[in-house]
Amino acid sequence: MTYTNLPGIIGERFFAVLDLSKNEYIDLREFVHGFFKVYYSNLETKIKLSFDVFDFDRDGYITKEDVRLILSHIPIVNTVEGKLNAEGAFTRDGGGMQVYLDRVQTQEEISLLIREVFGEKKRINYEDYVKINQEMSSEMFLSILTLLQNNLPCSVNYYRYKNNYEKYVGEENGTSKDGKEEEPVTYKTIASPRLMSKLSPINQFTNNTGINVNPLS
């Protein structure tokens, strides 16, 4: 948990996703497998990884409360100017009231996202999740993936392993096992994150990529 440098329950969920054998330990193969998913896999694999983070009971569905709980633990953008004391230190100089208001606004945005993507459904399956992130809005996917890529320690050793990705994860690129060329890869895209502005990973992603995002009011 300390190694991943992830906040609270996000670290617990990432550990659970890596623990493929479900024995509460992560061996070397599971460790490499998981980190390659984060850094080197295709879009479909990354989307499935983020879905698994939300899927607490591993039943193939995620509920509104699953989404609310995970997104509530994603770091947010604080609008306090100058030096900011630790969140929870409600002092005038530390900007405690503004931090509180930032959190309130974040919860309002999370509620908006849940209403938009779930509609009348009480839970969504993986196919629903893919469609939402590719066609509606991609906060659920981007908040998890960007947080993982920014927080997980990725040393030069992972880049050395990159050429052996298929050995550890079982994904191949360009040729099949018999040496024959496969059909050209069709690149897929995701929707712009248009429903939330307060999540720090989303804000960082949009700033780095130059995307102009205008959350709905």
Q: Which fold name fills CATH's third level, the topology?
A: Recoverin, domain 1
Compute the number of helices.
Answer: 10
> At CATH's second level, what is the architecture?
Orthogonal Bundle
Helix- and strand-based class? mainly alpha
Mean pLDDT: 78
> Main β-sheet: number of strands, strand sense, barrel status?
2 strands, antiparallel
Strand order of the largest sheet: 1-2
Give the C-alpha Rg.
19 Å
Number of separate structural domains: 1
Beta-strand percent range:
under 5%
Describe this structure in words.
The protein is mainly α and 217 residues long. It has one domain (8-209): Recoverin, domain 1. It contains 10 helices and 2 strands. The protein has a two-stranded antiparallel sheet with strand order 1-2.
Write the topology of this structure.
Blueprint: H1 8-18, H2 28-39, H3 43-54, E1 61-63, H4 64-72, H5 96-118, E2 123-125, H6 126-136, H7 139-151, H8 156-161, H9 165-169, H10 200-209
Antiparallel strand pairs: 1-2
Helix pairs in contact: 1-3, 3-6, 3-7, 4-5, 7-10
What distinguishing features does this structure have?
two-stranded antiparallel ribbon, 217 residues, single chain, Recoverin, domain 1, globular, mainly alpha, 2 strands
Short précis:
The chain has a single domain, classed as Recoverin, domain 1, CATH 1.10.238. Helix content is 52%, strand content 3%.
